[in-house]
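Chapter summary example: a protein plus sulfopyruvate.
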Amino acid sequence: MKKTTQLKQLITSQNLEFLMEAHHGLSAKIVEEAGFKGIWASGLSISAGMGIRDNNEASWTQVLDVLEFMSDATSIPILLDGDTGYGNFNNARRLVAKLEQRNIAGVCIEDKLFPKTNSFIDGETQALADIDEFCGKIRAMKDTQSDEDFVVVARIEALIAGLGLKEALLRGEAYRKAGADAVLIHSHRSDASEIEAFMKEWAGRLPVVIVPTQYYKTPTKRFAELGISVAIWANHNLRASIEAMQKLSKLIYREENLVNAESGIASLNEVFRLQGVDELKEAEKKYLPAK
Ligand code: SPV
Ligand code: MG
């Protein structure tokens, strides 16, 4: 099945589905092997992996290069965190065309201003996009896609900005009318109360995506009861790798040998397996002249 169709089915299925964060080809492959049906190409994680901030410091074509490796390494669909679409409607629709060329199944854009800042950094001070301008962006993106199953998710930042439920619903409804396939409602509260209130009023008008990074203590079954379509585990592979690398680098620096390092890390054979070394060995037998 096409990756776009896989993602569309995840978004529209009656069950609660999950996307797991990845930020390069290797992490994308690990997410697929763990059993996930889809990948969140997190802007935070991709930028952090580049050693830069989540403020559009990477150009969108640099992000695209990372995505190409992620897509090539996997057979499950990728939803790109496309920030604000990297400009106006024209930049956003060109992004869609380029994503389709690279077999990326969908993109999520948020109603903030370029260059964006991560929602968990002074969220309440962040200005939101004009509603009509953002709707034009959604329409341009939907008009541009050549594959009817390519997914555009419209992310509502009204709760992050402290503008309340009414503004969130107003925006969600406008984005639905503009043609979004789903809305992502974001909240930085440590409980799911804002999400609960939104779901009650939204009443299933369009699939809803959430990012429970801050309200992670809410039982997952509650999200299912609320009728949420997709929950995104948004940055956890990045954070796991940071902790693992910090511990290991300090250990090796301190001990100036590898004796205690070896047991806690992946074997070299595991690295080779993830890279697909066996496939190349087989291909060499087939295509290189016999010795
Ligand atoms: C990301 O993963 O980059 C996201 C989710 O956009 S959040 O960091 O919660 O804004
Ligand atoms: Mg992001």
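Key point: The pocket of magnesium ion (ligand 2) is lined by residues 42-44, 81 (CB under 6 Å).
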